[in-house]
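Many introductory courses stop at the sequence. We go one step further.
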Amino acid sequence: MNFNATLIGQMIAFAVFTWFCLKFIWPPIIHALEERKKTIADGLAAGEKGRHELELARGRFVELTREGKQGAAEIIALAQKRGDEIIDKAKEDARLEGEHLLAAARAEIEQERLQAKEHLRKEVAALAIAGAEQILMREVDRDAHNKVLERISATL
């Protein structure tokens, strides 16, 4: 066995093996590694994009929550103001109704007072006639007495 021939054969076999590996084995492995690298990079980019979108969503959530609270506070203030207006109007209506009832009651009292006064005047006239008849106990001119009594009752 010749040492040089073996070494040259081994070098040729190694060269063929290297060429075979570079031609048929390494390209699919490199391709798979590139695909894996791309997939990982896409996943990291998507994760970063998702994190960024999550931060934006949190910001929008905080802003919408603040606007909602502000809107609710405005609605509550408006409702409170409207409630106060309704209460004030009801108080004013009640006051006017009370004044109206008071005026009506006063007018009714005045009407009843006048009626009572007229009724008393008629009773006094009737009593005066009855008293005069009792005193006189005789028939006198009724028309003359009625005229006198009417003058007396008018002065009362």
